[in-house]
């Protein structure tokens, strides 16, 4: 029997290259090795976007369409929508009863989200009850399928540790060994910054989307920050001081290309505009096949919805069976 792997992504709409490099590319590989469950976390999206739900349904479809275009296969993995598994909500309630408040408050994911919320324009933004319970809901997502592994970046390991703490507490309180302690499976992925050198994000308007056209991508890449000390094309360049473009070459270029670009830049033989034009072409080449598939799903939305419905039904069957055991362990009526 394959070991179980669970991971999810908030329903934020069309995804960008950071999502692909940091998460999806890894998922595509892992689906061949594990009994994989990948979910769209629409409940999680409501913890901070509870008053902005007009695009929620479309955002869910867009996320799954991007996943499918990038290579997630519903025949190899279970793709589902969090809110179509009500068992998770009930289980979250049980876990909230046994989780100490200070365990939740120290979770870095919650701290980061609270910080983002407080930097919004509204001066009186408060942390909601739902946001406070965010780490426990994430734990319920993982434990619902009794995961062996959770693929995460190094900055998310602390949350898996919280899940492990709650697993141990549950097993200890109810004198059971039903739940396994999930292990973090670290991503060995390329991190990509935004076009302005900061973290790539939709809200920062500095991203390149997986579904962007070749023309849009080329235009966006031309806005990327380079070596600020270079004023003319034939100035000697400093690739290591190039804030965005050379970092992108390190991700998308071959070793030979990167070596040549470094040499030409340092000798003043390569201008930043030329470099970015070639970089845009390189990125477009990399994502050409993915974007062709993405365009297909754009015009075959019913297929995407069917995949969500089928995967959710499959996931709910597993969740229901596990919840029956959980209720029995807790000794619910």
Which CATH-level-2 architecture of the largest domain? 3-Layer(aba) Sandwich
Please give the number of β-strands: 5
Strand arrangement, major sheet? 1-2-3
| Inertia-based shape | elongated
Helix content: 40-55%
Residue stretches low in confidence (pLDDT < 50, at least 5 long) are none
CATH class of the largest domain: Alpha Beta
Q: Which assembly state applies to the chains in this document?
A: single chain
Structural class: mainly alpha
Radius of gyration: 22 Å
Tell me what the structure shows.
By secondary structure, this protein is mainly alpha-helical. The chain has two domains: 4-192 and 301-330, HUPs (Rossmann fold, 3-Layer(aba) Sandwich), CATH 3.40.50.620; 212-294, Tyrosyl-Transfer RNA Synthetase (Orthogonal Bundle). Helix content is 55%, strand content 8%. It has 14 helices and five strands. The strands form two sheets. A three-stranded parallel β-sheet has the order 1-2-3. Strands 4-5 form a two-stranded parallel ribbon.
């Amino acid at each position: 029997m394959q070991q179980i792997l669970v991971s999810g992504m908030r329903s934020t709409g069309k995804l960008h290259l950071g999502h692909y490099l940091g998460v999806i590319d890894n998922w595509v590989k892992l689906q061949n090795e594990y009994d994989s469950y990948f979910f769209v976390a629409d409940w999680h999206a409501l913890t901070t976007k509870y008053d902005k739900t007009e695009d929620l349904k479309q955002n869910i479809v867009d996320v799954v369409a991007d996943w499918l275009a990038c290579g997630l296969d519903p025949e190899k993995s279970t793709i589902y929508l969090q809110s179509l598994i009500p068992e998770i909500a009930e289980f979250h309630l049980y876990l909230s009863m046994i989780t100490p408040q200070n365990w939740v408050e120290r979770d870095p994911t919650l701290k980061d989200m609270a910080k983002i919320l407080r930097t919004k324009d509204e001066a009186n933004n408060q942390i909601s009850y739902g946001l406070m319970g965010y780490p426990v809901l994430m734990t319920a997502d993982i434990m619902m399928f009794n995961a062996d592994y959770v693929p995460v970046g190094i900055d998310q390991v602390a949350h898996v540790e919280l899940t492990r703490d709650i697993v141990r507490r549950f097993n200890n309180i109810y004198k059971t060994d039903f739940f396994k302690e999930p292990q973090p499976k670290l991503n060995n992925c390329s991190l990509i910054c935004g076009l302005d050198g900061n973290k790539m994000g939709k809200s920062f308007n500095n991203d390149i989307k997986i579904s962007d056209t070749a023309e849009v991508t080329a235009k966006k890449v031309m806005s990327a920050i380079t070596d600020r000390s270079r004023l003319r094309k034939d100035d000697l360049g400093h690739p290591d001081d190039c804030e965005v473009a050379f970092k992108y070459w390190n991700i998308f270029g071959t070793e030979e290309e990167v070596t040549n670009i470094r040499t030409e830049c340092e000798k003043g033989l390569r201008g930043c505009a030329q470099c970015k034009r070639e970089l845009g072409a390189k990125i477009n080449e990399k994502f050409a096949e993915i974007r062709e598939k993405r365009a297909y799903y754009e015009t075959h939305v019913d297929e995407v919805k069917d995949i969500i419905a089928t995967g959710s039904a499959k996931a709910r069957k597993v969740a229901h069976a596990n919840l029956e055991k959980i209720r029995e362990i807790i000794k619910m009526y």
